[in-house]
């Protein structure tokens, strides 16, 4: 064989070798990924041969499948439209699924290994047993109240979020993001309609597809003072100990004054710590944070859950669920790595680079109410088989961390109760119950009005019932008071459901 033919032969052999390697790569290593891809239309169409299981809460189906008589045998529907959209998500034909529909897809579709026995039985019976059912922790009355109150808020904002958590277990009682959206068009079998609906939501400047309850990170304002107060208490400061305050404070390295919201707030040179939180004394907490030091403040924030990049909300264990953005304190450091005192002063009142999700706000309040124990948040309560008689999973509440001791938690409870009884959180009061909380008004910068926050909890006979965070974006000066009012309404709804009223 002459040299040119040999070269051609070698090239052909190399090409066949590469083709063989790629075939093995696709059919072996990448097979599962391609088979389970959201964009594998063949798999998606096959899923419609089997009735998808329900997503339920409080005995009501929030996502269900109905027969169509068409090639795609079942249509996914969401009876409550916008109400549960950011929890459940949607299951489309040609788009990527979201929310619980995505996280629990295999169980809902009936393809989970847990339902293998049902599929084997179908081989002999010729039937197509439906998928499993997912039961959520959501308190329907609290969810409906949170949604309605956010939509009808009295400060006219169109963006916000609310989260309610059971402090004893971590079960999510309500999770609402404003604005919401109707998931039904995305589940349409007319893929053009579905794509058009998705594109319209994606182009909406208010970003209705964004889950603000879990994914929005904004400056928390004075709600962060609970974290700084916890750091002070853990380092030996008592709730009645005097801390430095005054009408104005400027750190030596700063060119900006820190002032209180009104001249009547802690004008004294010293005030008790409990009074500083009750009145929301900016100068007092700015000075306190500087005295504690950046690492002490940052460590307490981490102890409460800041910087956690692995948190998801689904089951109490596992790696599938609704993703949660990490809350941050920022570096609070100069370019050379040294502590930036001016930034620390601002950070200690929840400004500068401090950023928090509404879920994190609720978890802070929940840990305080639960004696210093912060439970892992979850939204899936139970997995039931297609026949609804077999349970494949039941939530097992788990402690996530202990940010503060029981004694410090008790002190924080007393301080937060004072905020509601005597300070800025009065709109959250509930007769006959112990309510603690903290308001926050956070400067947003630029042309955006201040954000309004409230974190708080409700207890009865020393037992926590609910912990809530409400965020009203760009709400202006009255935002924190309105957030407190909405939080109070949500907590009332949890109580009413609990008492069967």
Radius of gyration: 26 Å
- Broad shape: globular
Q: If you consult CATH, what is the topology of the domain at 215-379 and 400-498?
A: Beta-lactamase
What structural class is derived from the secondary structure elements?
Answer: alpha+beta
* H/I helix tally: 18
Oligomeric state of the chains?
Answer: single chain
Can you tell me the residue ranges where pLDDT is under 50 for at least 5 consecutive residues? none
CATH hierarchy class name of the domain at 215-379 and 400-498: Alpha Beta
Tell me the β content: 15-25%
| CATH 2nd-level architecture of the domain at 215-379 and 400-498 | 3-Layer(aba) Sandwich
Helix fraction by DSSP (H/I, runs of at least 4): 25-40%
How is the biggest beta sheet arranged?
Answer: 6 strands, mixed
Strand order of the largest sheet: 3-2-1-4-14-15
On the 0 to 100 scale, the average pLDDT is 92
Distance between the first and last residues' Cα: 93 Å
Q: Got a strand count?
A: 19
The fourth-level CATH homologous superfamily of the domain at 215-379 and 400-498 is DD-peptidase/beta-lactamase superfamily
């Amino acid at each position: 064989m002459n040299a040119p033919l040999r070269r051609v032969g070698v090239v052909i052999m190399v090409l066949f070798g590469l083709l063989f390697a790629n075939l093995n790569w696709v059919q072996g290593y990448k097979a599962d990924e391609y088979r389970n891809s959201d964009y594998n239309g063949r798999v998606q169409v096959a899923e419609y041969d089997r009735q998808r299981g329900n997503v339920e809460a409080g005995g009501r189906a929030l996502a269900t499948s109905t027969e169509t008589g068409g090639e795609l045998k079942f249509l996914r529907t969401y009876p409550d439209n916008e109400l549960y959209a950011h929890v459940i998500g949607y299951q489309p034909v040609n788009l990527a699924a979201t929310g619980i529909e995505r996280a629990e897809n295999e169980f809902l579709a009936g393809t989970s290994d847990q339902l293998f026995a049902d599929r084997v039985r179908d081989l002999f019976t010729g039937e197509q047993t439906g998928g499993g059912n997912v039961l959520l922790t959501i308190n329907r009355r609290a969810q409906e109240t949170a949604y309605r109150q956010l939509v009808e808020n009295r400060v006219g904002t169109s963006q916000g979020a609310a989260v309610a958590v059971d402090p004893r277990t971590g079960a999510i009682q309500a999770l609402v993001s404003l604005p919401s959206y109707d998931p039904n068009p995305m589940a349409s079998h007319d893929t053009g309609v579905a794509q058009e609906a998705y594109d319209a939501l994606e182009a909406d400047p208010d970003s209705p597809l964004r889950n603000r309850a879990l994914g929005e990170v904004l400056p928390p304002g004075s709600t962060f003072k609970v974290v700084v107060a916890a750091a002070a208490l853990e380092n030996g400061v008592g709730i009645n100990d005097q801390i430095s305050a005054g009408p104005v404070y400027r750190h030596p390295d700063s060119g900006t004054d820190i002032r209180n919201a009104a001249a009547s707030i802690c004008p004294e040179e010293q005030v008790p710590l409990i009074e500083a939180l009750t009145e929301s004394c900016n100068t007092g907490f700015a000075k306190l944070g500087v005295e504690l030091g950046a690492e002490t403040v940052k460590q307490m924030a981490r102890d409460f859950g800041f910087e956690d990049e692995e948190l998801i909300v689904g089951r109490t264990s596992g790696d599938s669920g609704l993703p949660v953005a990490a809350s941050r304190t920022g570096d609070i450091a100069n370019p050379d790595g040294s502590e930036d005192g001016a930034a620390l002063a601002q950070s200690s009142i929840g400004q500068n680079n401090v950023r928090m999700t509404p879920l994190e706000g609720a978890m802070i309040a929940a840990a305080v109410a639960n004696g210093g124990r912060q439970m892992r948040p979850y939204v899936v309560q139970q997995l039931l088989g297609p026949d609804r008689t077999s349970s494949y999973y039941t939530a097992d509440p788990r402690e996530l961390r202990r940010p503060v001791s029981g004694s410090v938690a008790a002190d924080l409870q007393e301080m937060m109760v004072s905020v509601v009884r005597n300070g800025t959180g009065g709109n959250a009061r509930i007769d006959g119950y112990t309510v603690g909380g903290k308001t926050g008004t956070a400067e947003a910068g630029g042309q955006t009005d201040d954000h309004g926050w409230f974190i708080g909890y409700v207890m009865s006979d020393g037992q926590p019932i609910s912990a809530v965070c409400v965020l009203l974006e760009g709400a202006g000066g009255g935002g924190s008071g309105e957030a407190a009012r909405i939080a109070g309404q949500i907590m009332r709804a949890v109580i009413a459901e609990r008492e069967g009223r």
